[in-house]
Design a protein that fits this description.
5 strands; 7 helices; alpha/beta
Length: 143
């Protein structure tokens, strides 16, 4: 499935091996991808043209995945987020359920599950689409 024009999957993970392998997987499915080593790097590069979905590691130095998700939502940014974690436990899973994340996936991630989620989020007929791609939402993300 080719990506929607201008639409990217934003992979945010402090582990270079995870970023690189996730990037390679997405590219193999002809999905446009951008990678970031930290939440701070993502925030610095965030613009009104940023849209698509985010694959976000929960446990990172500096800004955790939950902190980044809170920052985005406080700005009114509704970009869909898939959480990654290498340390799944009941408390983390409960926090993920209470957050506005689409899903939480334990590392190592099932390729089929990840690709299925991403494709559904990027599909033009996805119910998230109108919220993801409006000019107001794009501006809110970059605020």
């Amino acid at each position: 499935m080719p990506s929607t024009d201008g639409c990217f999957v934003h992979v945010i993970d402090d582990d270079a091996a995870v970023r690189d392998s996730t990037r390679a997987l997405l590219i193999s499915w002809r999905i446009a991808v951008r990678t970031y080593a930290s939440g701070r790097e993502f925030l610095q590069k965030l613009t009104p043209a940023t849209f698509g979905c985010i694959i976000l590691d929960l446990h990172m130095p500096d800004i955790s995945g939950f902190q980044l998700l809170d920052i985005l939502r406080e700005r009114g940014c509704l970009i869909p987020v898939i959480l990654f974690t290498g340390r799944a436990d009941p408390a983390t899973e409960e926090m993920a359920r209470l957050s506005s994340a689409i899903a939480i996936l334990a590392k190592p991630v099932s390729e089929d599950q990840l690709i299925g989620l991403v494709q559904s989020l990027l599909a033009p007929d996805n119910a998230m689409g109108p919220r993801m791609f409006t000019p107001a939402n794009r501006a809110a993300c970059a605020a």
